[in-house]
Design a protein that fits this description.
alpha/beta, about 15% strand, globular, Spore Coat Polysaccharide Biosynthesis Protein SpsA, Chain A, about 350 residues
Length: about 350
């Protein structure tokens, strides 16, 4: 598979507007503010083979009477506070144990630079550290490393989740999505399903991808990258395609090309409760991170900017101490509420909002 690096001269021929956007910065010729993302894009290597600085031990699952889930969470070296918040809330082992699952967490991060991760690795042994600098365009390499790790070190898992470190997962609702995969033969993966979309060819847009990097005018359908869950079989079928496809600078669409190449698109299922948690307009309008009655119906909620807010929101969701409409719920131990499948965790009815906004 022969690679083709981005040719700047050809890019400026096809996108003449770029010629007027050049400036001299620190003695180097770069594109000006508004187009500065292209400075990073032209350095993008779509056939990189990054090494591994550190990886966690192999999965060691013991309770063979329950389903096994591996979580791949994309993070950054400096985001240890978010990783701690996730370990103590959404992915707390006791919570998943009460729900009848055994879990393993793997945080996917790039080169740590001056950040010392030694103590975190010693305490948790859940960091997969990759030998490349963090970049929005290299997120696809985190997916690649995770799928390869699953195949190499966690082949006994039943389900695979991949998402960002700024999401709050409601475990009860994710467990329901997993049950859907188990019960529906035509569904092997669940997320916020995006239909075929046109490739962004406008250079000022941060999602700009020139034809040199991806020639087709549309992407195959894909999952929004905030979070989705698949069967082990589905994940391994994607892994088989890694060496046959170039990485794209847009991670979620790249994963879509792997799914399409594996001929697994027909097994993708849409989740309203995941989609609604990923919609920025929804959070803005309803302040979703503060509205427990809505958040309790989401499989995940995206874009937390404060790990303490993530912890507080999670405790609010699982506490059972809130009023929704005409129903009120008594304070009780959240683990007991989950085990009894308490009404607190019924999925929220989003149909009125979908109709209101013509979605």
């Amino acid at each position: 598979m022969e690679d083709v690096q981005l040719d700047i001269a050809e890019l400026e021929v096809t996108m003449p507007v770029l010629r007027d956007q050049k400036i001299i910065k620190n003695g180097k010729c770069e594109y000006a503010l508004g187009y500065s993302h292209i400075n990073e894009l032209i350095r993008f290597n779509r056939s990189m083979k990054p090494g591994i600085i550190h990886e966690p031990a192999q999965c060691s699952f013991f309770k063979k009477d329950r389903d096994l889930i591996i979580f791949g969470i994309k993070s950054m070296p400096s985001s240890s506070d978010f990783r701690d918040a996730i370990r103590e809330s959404s992915l707390s082992e006791p919570i998943w144990d009460w729900l009848g699952y055994e879990v393993k967490i793997v945080f996917l991060i790039g080169r740590p630079g001056k950040i010392d991760l030694t103590r975190e690795i010693q305490l948790h042994d859940d960091l997969l550290v990759l030998d490349f600098d963090e970049s929005q365009y290299y997120l696809g390499y985190k997916d690649i490393a995770f799928f390869k790790y699953v195949k190499r070190a966690c082949f006994s898992a039943d389900f695979v989740f991949i998402g960002d470190d700024d999401i709050l997962i409601v475990p009860q609702n994710l467990a329901r999505e997993i049950q859907r995969i188990k019960s529906e033969p035509q569904t092997q993966a669940v997320g916020c399903l995006k239909p075929e979309e046109y490739v962004t060819r406008t250079p000022k847009n941060k999602y700009f991808v020139p034809r040199q990097l991806y020639f087709p005018e549309t992407y195959p359908q894909y999952f929004s990258g905030g979070g989705y869950v698949t069967s082990l079989h589905f994940a391994l079928k994607m892994e088989e395609q890694i060496n046959r496809n170039f990485v794209l600078p847009m991670e979620d669409t790249f994963v879509g090309t792997l799914i399409n190449a594996a001929k697994m698109s027909k097994y993708m299922g849409n989740s309203v409760s995941i989609c609604m948690g990923l919609r920025n307009w929804f959070k803005t309008e309803i302040e979703i991170n503060k509205d427990v009655c809505i958040m309790r119906g989401l499989t995940l909620s995206h874009k937390f900017y404060d790990p303490e807010e993530m912890r507080r929101s999670f405790q609010s969701v699982v506490s059972g101490n809130f009023v929704c409409g005409e129903r009120s719920f008594k304070q009780e131990d959240y683990l007991s509420a989950w085990k009894r499948n308490n009404d607190n965790f019924e999925l929220f009815n989003f149909e009125p909002f979908i109709q209101k906004h013509n979605l």
